[in-house]
Write a structure and sequence with these properties.
About 35% of the residues lie in helices and about 25% in strands. By secondary structure, it is α/β, with parallel strands linked by helices. The radius of gyration is 18 Å and the shape is globular. The two termini are about 25 Å apart.
């Protein structure tokens, strides 16, 4: 994938590998995401999509290769490009993670805090934002995702779709340069999927840089700038959505699309 921006890509993966014991999940992923682009990753379960997202956010440590976000090497440091890698400290890893928002399959909201309190926690305690400023931005974000009237509600009082919209707003509250979505609708009842997809589509129209793992093929075709099909830990095929969904070259991809359509 080639970025159309003159500046460095937001995400650059170079031969990224990840294993869990003897199981090799990622076998050399190389791809690029330009600033303002929406990369959608599709593929069968177990192909490595979620693991790749977790590596970007340094929730998993790569075993080989390099991952850069906005020019910064994730999880390691090197004296100069291509040199030996040295693992960074947990504190430095946490600093890198502050600029990357991630929305998971399950909402992971603090159950003892209201929607508003969920949003202001990290900006205040991690970024040192003044409480009044954090509250103002949190209210704006809850309004943006259609949850302004639920600011004082606790997660148990919200539907799954509402909780996921709060989770998206919480990720945005840190002003991330990159948003990652790992199957954000997979835990929702079918009638709640649309409200979450609408929020994500609105973010795409804002020009946010995003990587989205999803099985919602119709939505992927509509929102993606670029699509990557992962199979068995490798990029099997990639291209613009009209090619991937309209004229796939790989027989595996054609079979996958038949199975999910």
């Amino acid at each position: 994938m080639t970025t159309t921006q003159e500046s460095k890509p937001m995400v650059l993966a170079e031969s990224v590998c990840k294993s869990f014991g003897a199981l090799q999940v990622l076998k050399g992923i190389t791809l690029e995401v330009g600033k303002g682009q929406v990369l959608v990753m599709v593929g069968p379960s177990g192909s490595g999509k979620s693991t790749f997202l977790r590596c970007i956010n340094h929730l998993e440590q790569v075993n080989a290769g390099r991952l850069y976000v906005d020019g910064d090497l994730i999880g390691y440091r090197e004296k100069k490009r291509g040199d030996k890698l040295y693992e960074i400290s947990p504190r430095d890893a946490a600093k890198q993670r502050r600029d990357i928002g991630m929305v998971f399959q399950h909402f992971n909201l603090f159950p003892h805090r209201t929607a508003l309190e969920n949003l202001i926690e990290a900006p205040i305690h991690v970024k040192g934002v003044k409480k009044a400023d954090a509250v103002k931005r949190a209210k704006d974000l809850l309004d943006q995702v259609g949850m302004a009237e639920k600011a004082t509600a606790y997660p148990a009082q919200l539907s799954g779709g509402q909780q996921q919209r709060v989770a998206i707003a919480r990720a945005l509250a840190m002003n991330p340069k990159l948003m990652l979505f790992d199957e954000p609708t997979s835990a929702l009842d079918p009638e709640l999927v649309g409200e979450v997809l609408k929020v994500i589509a609105d973010l795409a129209r804002e020009g946010r840089t995003m990587i989205l793992v999803t099985h919602e093929m119709k939505f992927a075709r509509e929102v993606a700038s670029h699509v990557v099909y992962l199979y068995n830990g490798l990029v099997e095929e990639e291209g613009p959505p009209e090619q991937i969904f309209g004229a796939p070259r790989s027989e595996r991809l054609r079979q996958f699309l038949r199975n999910v359509s």
